[in-house]
Design brief:
By secondary structure, the chain is mostly beta strands. Helix content is 9%, strand content 33%. The protein has a five-stranded mixed sheet, with no helix packed on it. The longest helix has 8 residues.
Length: 138
C-alpha cells in the first residue's frame, strides 16, 4: 500500500509587522485604522510626540476585545489611576502599553487575535472620546 501526501504551499503572512502610532498634546492619534493579519506578530510602538507630562496629558494604547462598550470601559478606566488607567481585573483588554508622558515611547509585542474588527483607545480619563480607532485583523 502506497500513501501519497499532498503538500500545499500557501502564501505566508509576514511574520512580524511593525507599527508606530503617535499621540500628541491635542489628544489625537496619528492613525485611526491599523490592519494586520490573523496570527501575525505585531510589534507596536507608541510615541508621545507632545511635551506635556503624563499627569496632565498621559497616553497609552489599549486594544479592546470585540463587543466592549468603549464608554463603560473608559468610565471604569478613569478610576484606575494607580494601574495606568486599566481597570483591575478587567477581561476587556487584549493588550495595552504603559502610560506615557510627552517625549516618551514604548514598544509592545503581541500576536494578532482572530479575524475581525477591534477598537483601540487611549484610556487616560476622557481621551477615549477622541483617541480611538479600528484594529482590523484580516
Amino acid at each position: 500500500m502506497i500513501i501519497t501526501l499532498a503538500l500545499s504551499t500557501s502564501v505566508m503572512a509576514q511574520d512580524v509587522v511593525e507599527i508606530t502610532i503617535e499621540g500628541n498634546d491635542q489628544m489625537k492619534f496619528n492613525l485611526d485604522e491599523i490592519k494586520v493579519e490573523e496570527g501575525q506578530t505585531v510589534k507596536l510602538t507608541l510615541k508621545h510626540v507632545g511635551k506635556l507630562p503624563k499627569a496632565a496629558m498621559g497616553h497609552n494604547w489599549v486594544l479592546l476585545k470585540q463587543g466592549t462598550n468603549i464608554q463603560e470601559f473608559g468610565s471604569a478606566a478613569a478610576k484606575a489611576a494607580g494601574n495606568d488607567y486599566i481597570p483591575e481585573g478587567t477581561d476587556d483588554v487584549i493588550v495595552h502599553t504603559k502610560m506615557l508622558g510627552g517625549g516618551e515611547e514604548t514598544t509592545i509585542e503581541f500576536t494578532a487575535p482572530a479575524k475581525g474588527t477591534y477598537d483601540f483607545i487611549c484610556s487616560f480619563p476622557g481621551h477615549y472620546a477622541l483617541m480611538q480607532g479600528k484594529f482590523i485583523v484580516e
